[in-house]
Amino acid sequence: MLGITRESVPEDALLRTFRGGVHPERWGRYADCFAVRVDQNATLAQYVFAFYTSPLFLIECGLLRLLINAPSSRADVRAIADGTSDKFAVWYVGQRTATQLLMCDRYERTRSWFCVEPERGGTRLRFGSAVAAERGERTDAARRPAVFGLLLSFHLLYSQALLRAAKANL
Known about the structure:
The chain is of the alpha+beta class. It has a domain at 5-42 and 91-169. It has five helices and seven strands; from the N terminus they run βαβαααβββββα. It has a seven-stranded antiparallel beta sheet with strand order 1-2-7-6-5-4-3. It is globular and about 45 Å long.
């Protein structure tokens, strides 16, 4: 999808290593990682701002505002991107480094991961997601509910579209 590749979640990714939250034992059910190259030097702040202000993500923000009263603004996005706030809409910052940001949802069900990696003449942007297991649920693929598989197909396409939108917004 326009230069977007699916990759394994890197061993040092906050998406893999961060076990904070209410039930750290529930993480490991599902995680993914997509990457794309941009022909410019992009910082984590620029990438996160471009992602969360892309036209496609603004639709999600509108739905969150309407359905669960979780408003957000460009100023909120700027504060998350710049590291001056730790909350945005339904997410909070789980952990941040100079090149990675892990956002956790307030329900402790999903996580979103952003990573920038400088490359010669550009930057590799990575975006990943993780889903928590239910209490007592096994984390292997064979035990996932059927609805998970149905939603996963949409999620994979949506994640790639979001990354493409962030790239275009940069």
